[in-house]
Design a protein that fits this description.
By secondary structure, this protein is mostly helical. About 80% of the residues lie in helices and about 0% in strands. The chain has four helices and no strands.
Length: about 180
C-alpha cells in the first residue's frame, strides 16, 4: 500500500475517532439538557394542572352558590316577603334548604374560594347561621307557627347584598376565564 493511502487511512481513522468522541459528548450534553427541560416542563405542567383544577372546582362551587342565592332572592321577591300567613312548605323547602346549603357549601369548601371572597363568605355564613338559629328557636323549640316569616335583619344581621354581588361577579368572571382557555 502506498504511503499516500496509509496517510489517508490514518487520517480518516483519527478524524473518525475524534468525531465520534465529540459526537458522544454532544449527545450526552443534549440528553442532560433534555432531561432538565423535561423535569422543568413536568413541574410547570403539574403546577398548571393544579391551578386549572382549583379554578374548575372554584367555578363549580361558585356556580352552586350563585344558583342558591338567585333562588333565595327570587323566593323572597316573589313570595316570602308578601306572605299573609306562615307557609311551612315554602319556608322549609326553599328558604331553609337554600340557607343551609349555601352555608354548608361555604364552610366545607372555603379552601376553594378565591382569597378576595373569604370575608364576604364569612358575612354570608354569619347571616345564615343567625337565620338558622332563629328558625330553630322560633319553629322547632317555641313551635311558633303564627309568625309569618323569619327575619334577622331587624336583629342586626341584614342579608349581605354586597357579598351576593361579589360572589356572582366572581363566578361570571371565573366561568368566562375557564371556558375561554
Amino acid at each position: 500500500m502506498s504511503e499516500f493511502f496509509k496517510q489517508i487511512l490514518g487520517s480518516t481513522i483519527v478524524t473518525g475517532f475524534f468525531t465520534a468522541v465529540i459526537a458522544y459528548f454532544f449527545h450526552k450534553r443534549t440528553e442532560k439538557y433534555n432531561s432538565v427541560l423535561k423535569r422543568e416542563f413536568e413541574a410547570l405542567s403539574k403546577k398548571d394542572t393544579a391551578y386549572f383544577e382549583w379554578r374548575k372546582n372554584t367555578v363549580e362551587l361558585l356556580g352552586q352558590v350563585y344558583i342558591h342565592l338567585n333562588r333565595l332572592k327570587l323566593a323572597f321577591q316573589n313570595k316570602y316577603s308578601k306572605v299573609q300567613e306562615y307557609d311551612r312548605f315554602y319556608e322549609d323547602e326553599i328558604i331553609l334548604k337554600s340557607n343551609q346549603h349555601i352555608r354548608d357549601l361555604l364552610i366545607n369548601n372555603g379552601h376553594a374560594l378565591p382569597p378576595e371572597l373569604l370575608d364576604e363568605a364569612t358575612k354570608l355564613i354569619e347571616h345564615f347561621d343567625v337565620w338558622l338559629t332563629k328558625y330553630n328557636q322560633t319553629r322547632i323549640l317555641d313551635k311558633d307557627f303564627n309568625s309569618k316569616q323569619i327575619y334577622v335583619g331587624p336583629d342586626g344581621f341584614r342579608f349581605p347584598e354586597n357579598a351576593e354581588k361579589l360572589f356572582k361577579e366572581k363566578y361570571v368572571e371565573m366561568f368566562n376565564e375557564l371556558h375561554r382557555s
